[in-house]
Each structure stands twice: as C-alpha cells, then as structure tokens.
Amino acid sequence: MPGFEVLYQAAALCLTYPDDDFRARLPLLREAAPQLRGFTDHAAATEQGELQAHYVEVFDFKNRHSLYLSWWTDGDTRNRGMSLVRFKELYRAHGLEFTGEELPDFLPAVLEFVSRTGNMEMLTEHRDALDQLRSRLTAFGTPYACVLDAVCATLPPAPTGARR
C-alpha cells in the first residue's frame, strides 16, 4: 500500500459529516490528495449548510448509500453482529481500541485504520460493497462518488462472481 496512506486518511475525512473542522481542513485535503479534487473542489465552492444538507440527503436517509460495510454483506441480520466483532478484533490486533461514536465498520473509520496500519484486509474483503456504493453514488449524481472512485482505484479487482 505504498503512498496511499494520505489518500485513505483524506478520503476518511471527506466521507464524514462536513462540520467546521472539515471546512478548516479542506485546503490541506485539496493539496494532499489530488485524487479527491472532484469532491474537494465541490466542497470548497459549496456553502457549508448546503454541503451538510447534501451529506444528510446522500448518507442518512436510505441504506442505498450506506457507509457501513457490513450492511452490504449482512444487511440488518444477526450475522451483522459477528461481522462488527471481526472489525473490532482486527483493530485490537493492531493495538487500537475502537471508541468512535460510529460502528467499527463505518467506512471512514476503516479508511483511517488502513492509513495508520497498512492492513487492507477489510477494504479488499468488502471490495464488492465499495464498488456497489461507488456505482450508486455515481448514479445519484453526488460528488462523493469521486471519493469512492479514488479509493477503489487503489484496490485489487473484486473476485469474479462477487455479488452485485
């Protein structure tokens, strides 16, 4: 994963709710991760309240754009609990304790984990989910699709026969 640490950290920040801290970091994100310029240029040109409303519209109303990786594989079933435990165990195995307000499979948390550890296991395991999310964000017409484009471009292709 040489060279992708900064991209993953920047993508993690771009995929979280765009609060005032995000706005303050935006010039650094634009400089550090040129692969995300499609999104960061849009964010820089968009009024804060509009950007926040768009984030909520894209990610908070429907699971069709879920940022929770285990939702794509397990849906809202009992199996999802075990998947979440696997994420937490992976974090612990690398000396990290997941204490975020979000679930451990929240894509920005996973991207931050990968940027810190170099362990891409959960990204590659959920490659098909990332492709589905990217496709749906593209069809929705949101600049967030550019963030998924950049992340997916760093990953090996999904295995043949992966679920669509």
Automatic annotation (TrEMBL):
GO biological process terms held by the UniProt record: chaperone-mediated protein complex assembly; nitrate assimilation
Family matches, as Gene3D superfamilies: TorD-like
Keywords per UniProt: Nitrate assimilation
Keyword Disulfide bond set for record: no
The UniProt record lists the keyword RNA-binding: no
Matching InterPro entries: DMSO/NO3_reduct_chaperone, NO3_reductase_chaperone_NarJ, TorD-like_sf
Gene Ontology terms, MF aspect: metallochaperone activity; unfolded protein binding
Top-level lineage group: Bacteria
Pfam families linked to this entry: Nitrate_red_del
Alphabetized NCBIfam families for the sequence: narJ
Protein name: Nitrate reductase molybdenum cofactor assembly chaperone
Organism, scientific name: Streptomyces coelicoflavus
Gene name in the database record: narJ
